[in-house]
Amino acid sequence: MDKDTLVTLLKYKLWADTATLQSIQETDDSIHPEKHHLMLRLMNHIYVVDRIFQANMTSQQHGYTALNTPETPSVEELRVNMRECTEWYIERVSAMQDADLAEVIRFQFVDGGKGEMKSLDMINHVLFHGTYHRGAVGWLISECGGIPPKDVVTVFLRDHNH
Predict the structure, then answer these.
(1) Which of the two ends of the chain, N or C, has the fewest CB atoms closer than 10 A to its terminal CB?
(2) What predicted TM-score, i.e. pTM, was given to this entire model?
């Protein structure tokens, strides 16, 4: 996958995360509070994993001991945190060369196991992992009477990728 495609997909991720959080915010949390809480937990999980892979890509310690945090952030906290993190990925990938994408990075999984992945594979994981969980959140939004976003790549490319 070329760098320009990765940047476009990261911009799509930013747009889709933002739209999903907006839909969560517009959903009445008093009707199904447990499902609303689960939506936030899933979005926070996406963010935590994004941050873990960010740390792995920069050979930094991430400080996470689990794939989610004990506390559940608000929609607004997630909006800010997820935007900052994805903007970091966009800047990072924009500055990378093909050789950087092929670089093999060794790291520790949160459970303590040893890992080894190319930068490109880490970025792909961040992209696909988030899409998987946003799909579950969209389902929960529907179950709570809300309207999930049309967070598909085709809509992004048609309406938002200028």
Answers:
(1) C
(2) 0.96
Strand partners, 117: 105
Judge whether 162 is annotated as a binding position. Answer: no
3-state secondary structure of 149: coil
- What is the tens place of the pLDDT at every residue in 88-129? 999 999 999 999 999 999 999 998 899 999 999 999 999 999
d(CA 56, CA 105): 7
Q: Which residues pair with 108 in a beta bridge?
A: 114
Quote the CA–CA distance of 136 and 76 in Å, as a whole number: 20
State both tokens at 139.
């389902």
Which domains does the chain carry? 3-157 (1.20.120.450)
Is 62 annotated to bind a ligand? Reply is no
